[in-house]
Amino acid sequence: IQLTQSPSSLSASVGDRVTFTCRASQDISSYLAWYQQKPGKAPKRLIYSASTLQSGLPSRFSGSGFGTDFTLTISSLQPEDFATYYCQQTHSYPVTFGGGTTVDIK
Amino acid sequence: EVQLVESGGDLVQPGGSLRLSCAGSDFTFTYYWMHWVRQAPGRGLEWISRISNDGTTPDYADSVKGRFTISRDNAKNTLYLQMKSLRAEDTALYYCARDKGADGLDPWGQGTQVIVSS
After folding, report:
1. Which of A25, A35, A43, A96 is the most exposed place for a label (fewest CB within 10 A)?
2. Chain B partners of A95 at a C-beta cutoff of 8 Å?
3. pLDDT tens digits, residue range A57-84?
4. Contact B45 A31 (CB under 8 A)
5. With a cut of 50, which residues of chain B have pLDDT below it?
C-alpha cells in the first residue's frame, strides 16, 4: 500500500492553522498513524487509528479521515511544532510510510 | 517509562558486517512484535524488518532480504539486526520500535548510526 503525503513541505507562522494530507493507494479503513519527527530526534507517534490523539499530547493536533484520504491538522501552530510529519498505514503488511511533510517557519 | 535503546552502529567498509542491538525496558518485551526502521541522510522513513513476539516469524523489506537477519532474545529483552554484505546505500540511522498493532509503532528508540564507506 503506497501512501502519498502532500504537500512535501509548507511554510507557516506561529498561530496558523495548518492541514496536510495522506492518501493511500487502497482502502485502509482507519488504520493510519501519524508521527512527528524533529531534527536529530526519533519519530514520535501523534495520532493512531486515524483520529485518536496520543495520550499527553496537546489537543491542537487532530486527525481525520477514512478509507483512502486522511488529514492531520494543527489548529494553532506553536514553535515546537516545526518538524516533519509522516503517516504510516497499519492495515496490512508490509509497513509503509508516506514521504513526509516538513513544516518550517515562514 | 517504556524505553528502547539502540547500540552497535559504526563506520564499516562496503561488504562488511555489523550487528545492531535494541534493549527494551519497563514493558513486557515478550508480548510485542518489534521492528527496525531506517532513515538515510535527508530522507524519509524506510521500514526494513519486523519479528514476531516469540521470534519465530521474521519479515524483511526487499531491499535487505538475504543480507539482514532480525532476531531477539526475550530473556534479555533485546532485539537484534545482523547486517551483512553492507552497501553504501545502507548508510542510515537505524531505529527500533515497538509494534502496537493497528495503533502503529510506539515508542521508538533514539537510533544508531550506520555508515558504510571505504
Report:
1. A25
2. 35, 37, 47, 50, 105
3. 999 999 999 999 999 999 999 999 999 9
4. no
5. none
Burial code (b: 16+ CB inside 10 Å, e: under 16) for B49-86 equals bbbebeeeeebbbeebeeebbbebeeeebbbbbebeeb
On whether any CB of chain A is under 8 Å from the CB of B101, the answer is: yes
Strands B78-83 and B68-73: antiparallel
Span A5-64, pLDDT tens digits: 999 999 999 999 999 999 999 999 999 999 999 999 999 999 999 999 999 999 999 999
Amino acid in position A42: A
By the CB < 8 Å criterion, does B47 face chain A? yes
CB A16 within 8 A of CB A22: no
Q: Is A55 on the interface with B (CB under 8 A)?
A: no
Asked if A100 and A86 count as a contact pair (C-beta separation under 8 A), the reply is yes
Q: Beta B112-116 vs B11-12: how paired, if at all?
A: parallel
pLDDT score of B108? 98
